[in-house]
Amino acid sequence: MMKTESYSFIDIFDFSTEQDGENIKLNKIVIPIIQRDYAQGRLIPEIKRIRDRFLDALFNAIEGDPITLDFVYGDIDSNGIMTPLDGQQRLTTLFLLHWYAAKKEDVDFEEYEFLKMFSYETRYSARDFCVLLVDFEINIVDKALISDQIKNQHWFPLSWTKDQTINSMLVMLDAIHSKFFKVEDLWGKLKSKKISFYFLPIKDMGLTDELYIKMNSRGKPLTQFEHFKAEFERVLKSIDSKLEKEISSKIDKEWTTLLWNYRGDDNLIDDEFLRYYRFICDVICYKNGDSPQGRSTDEFDLLSMYFAESTENIKLLETYFDCWVNVQENSVDEFFEKFNQENIFEDSLRNYADLTGNKQTRFSLNKKILLYTIVVFLKNREKVSDDEYIRRLRIVRNLIANSRDEISDSTSRVGGNRLPAILKQVDSIILKGEIDSSLDINFNRHQLDEEKEKINWCKNNPDKEQILFELEDHELLYGQIGIVGLENPELFSRFKSLFLCDLDKVNCALLSIGDYSQTNSWRRQLGSTMNESWQNLFHKSSNGNFDKTKETLKSLLEMHEKFNDNILSDIINRFLQSCETNSEYPWQYYFIKYQSFRPDKYGKYSWANYNNKKYEFSAMFTRDKWSQNTFQPFLKEIDESRLNRDNLGQSLIYDDQYIVICVNDGYIIKTLDSAEELLKIDILQNENNIDIEDRIIKGKTVIPLMIKDLLSKKENK
User: Fold this and answer.
1) How far apart are CA 482 and CA 397, in angstroms?
2) Are residues 289 and 363 in the same domain?
3) pLDDT of residue 658
4) pLDDT at 704
């Protein structure tokens, strides 16, 4: 194999080689007509990213550790003219950088005269531009654009602005100026071989079709993926040339075939590949105990971070693609159809990452975990049967659905980055069918405990497994069945029957049995006509009184094997009649009897002092805040037209003079201006502070009379 050496752009012109017994010295580099235009200066976002990244690498080499770029391949003819077959873009950028350094630092012409030995043959305009550029004496100052000064010269015809190569060179010169203007002794650092590349001359070789394809057709810019693929192959080759050949072949064949079915409108699979690549990088990051938040999402940076020095990670990437190629079914689509799943692999190819660099994504953390779960199964399909996978996937889904507050990869949130431990938990579930209790905080601990119990329960009750799964799948439970309890399998089907009924009637029937509300600071959660209210009640959280809700629900479910609206109405009416017969009116009585207490919202109520002032509460229209639509329900039922919205529904207002508020044992009338208490209307209560007269009826009767009397007295004065 021919020995290769590294050269700087300066000393490459001292290169010589032997041809037919004659020593040939390289005396010119010519970009041939067959080559495409210079593209690193094009004004499109993906090229700008590539340009910025390349200049950053050159800058870091100049100011820090030297860099050796990849191979430059070229033909050298008997006249010493080298035709680059690969490396045109890098050579052109180095030509411009050396020109800039020489002009900025006023280097003697003899030192940079070799720049005239670099030429473009793609168009005569590009060729002439390179010659004239070297001769041009420019005054380089900090804020002045290089391109403006060049375009203002008499030797720069207007028609040259239509030459893609010249335009790209001008853009690159401005970028170089912005990056390197403050670098001291730039020319000296270039001379000291801070930047070099490997050069491999190719003797007696014509342009084959294969080589032409590798060089890309003239004028066609390399895509972001093509740049990445070239860099990826270079990294692989530096680690393991055999592995590089194997993976490069898979990218071109098996993996392209896999992704082709999901290609975009551009008939390319480039973006699809890069999005799935991002998923793999995130998995590696999590497995290292880290979070991708705050880190670069640039595919080249990720390549450097995760693959430049790790054969293990490269192998992981290979298996993450191969597992989809090797599905036992005829296709990936058929795999998902078999297990009645949405094609989350396709979802990841479409939405995993925004490749423009703004870090937006439509692929949630929940989906990341689910995709990882499926990959773990596919990679270990010889160890996990399809039936085991179905059962274990259900466990993971339950955990995901009930860990809304826990699933986070933020290092700043309480609990920190949970994804590393969550992925380990997924490994244990899919590979062993077990919950790993030794892991630090991961999924919701209540759900982890429940899933562990369900695993053992199913082993002991295989005949009841299916009815458990049906209960898990209920839209109000989505996996968490603790509100019914494994100890009550006879109630599983009854729960489904109950919640086929009118939800408002279910709410009232439960309150007829007991106060099943749950507490969260000053808020209380009750059911409503919205599913969300019941989902909040039926899933263990920081709310208090979950066990009371469960006890009340159990009591209702035990009343009948099947439920309908008539049965619930009977339960409700018996409760109301009992209250009226006994002349005892707890807050639940009013809540059930008067529809205004139950807005079709989230079932949220504010109770400042529930234990001592049960009649002082407000109905909320939002999940967790008061708003103008908040109201005190007793007042709304008495006279909704006078409800004071400016006071957030906490008072009635009469003739812009008097307000009425509700207190635990009655109503108070005040003046609007001074808030001075004028009158109190007492509500009779028993020794347990429960109303023994209907305060709604009394309020509707007495309050208008009191207001009328006050207004009359004021007029008489």
Assistant:
1) 16
2) yes
3) 92
4) 94
